């Protein structure tokens, strides 16, 4: 699949759209399967190089529809990006926190089983979901810190062509997305000399998570090497990580329920939820 194929992806309308802030991009979409539940939950976080230019939440409705057909509820998250007011550091990360806080409140009114939850992120979204899993390691002095335990802990992650390691992949972020680290991690200060101390999942391990890194063999935005390198660092730190390479797949096949790669992506998600062997 090409970028144009990806941008053309669509899916069903959500059952509800809920706002966690006043900005236009501060909302999430809830998709509910048929039946009574309670349903396992997939939190979807779109990519797009942290900008508005390359689509996002609309395209992930394609995946959301396929997951709800499998009995999985979906929380499809929009957020402020670096080219929106308040986006970047710390706003984008604060949006992730707020979106999960809203999910916790939403689960009081809908049949959602938050004990069976996986965060699934594509590309830039891969960085954000791996950061969500790493929140327990964020220093209390950070503006991104949440009192522990966080309302919705993320212990299972599926990263689809994720660009998670801001410290070690600085050059790739520039060549693949045109992003400077300062846009995503802020600038150093006396109070925060290391900008990766609260933004980089690679620096916030071990955090008790399990990550399945799924990457297309033909992915040039986040090549397979990136997945293997992050998995090796996670394992060395004491966290669980597996790599799945999708034969013949590009960066965009990774998120399309219409692609030949979808069965393996779906299996990774269901494995993370502990339901793959039940079907």
TrEMBL record:
Residues 30-229 form the BD-FAE-like domain. SUPFAM superfamilies: alpha/beta-Hydrolases (SSF53474). It comes from the Bacteria. Transmembrane segments: none annotated. It holds the Pfam family BD-FAE. InterPro entries: AB_hydrolase_fold, BD-FAE-like_dom, GDXG_lipolytic_enzyme. GO terms for molecular function: hydrolase activity. Gene3D superfamilies: alpha/beta hydrolase. Keywords: Hydrolase. This is Alpha/beta hydrolase.
